[in-house]
Amino acid sequence: MKYNGVVEGKFIKRENRFIGYVLINGEVEKCHIKNTGRCKELLIEGAKVFLEPSSNSQRKTKYSLVAVLKGEKLINMDSQAPNKVVEEAIEKGKLFKNVSFIKRECKFQNSRFDFYVEMGQKKAFIEVKGVTLEKDGVVSFPDAPSQRAIKHILELIEAKKLGYEAYIIFVIQLEGSKFFVPNKERHIQFYEALKTAVESGVKVLAYECDVEKDELLLSKREVEVRLQEDF
Question: Would you say the pTM of this structure is higher than 0.85?
């Protein structure tokens, strides 16, 4: 996926989950933050950020913050981007073979999964999670407790029991990852649910992205998912 007219800025502060302030060409601008996670290790004062101008002249925020430079590592933090790059990859045949049907936001029982895909005789539900949390090359999810994420995992397990294929795809919005782990420190229940999902036959995958300030593409490089106790 591509962003248009991306400009560089310097992060000042975050007002709330959705709004922040940046310095662009010497002017303080209010911006929309396209990620409601904590992102405390990313959105620090003085960080170099990249923003896409809004096409809506009536919008209160002129820019949307889409990427940040953490040290020398560029991280896309647009929470809508993972679904878009997965959809592009599915359509191009990069993730699954013989795809004949794709539906976004598909309802199943009490959840709404990101994708429903048909591949020949196989019918699959897919849930996508964006990953921006990284330390020494190890990437993890979530960066804050997420009951919604657990709910999705439990219902994927139910879908698997009913004969569907079930996938959780972690989209790593940065390059140079060593491996992926669930974030036990932030949410032990998520780790336990994910482990149960794997034991139930839900397929858990993680893929890196090729990251540019104005583009994000799902890479073919699959990242190892580690669920063992001693990571």
Answer: yes
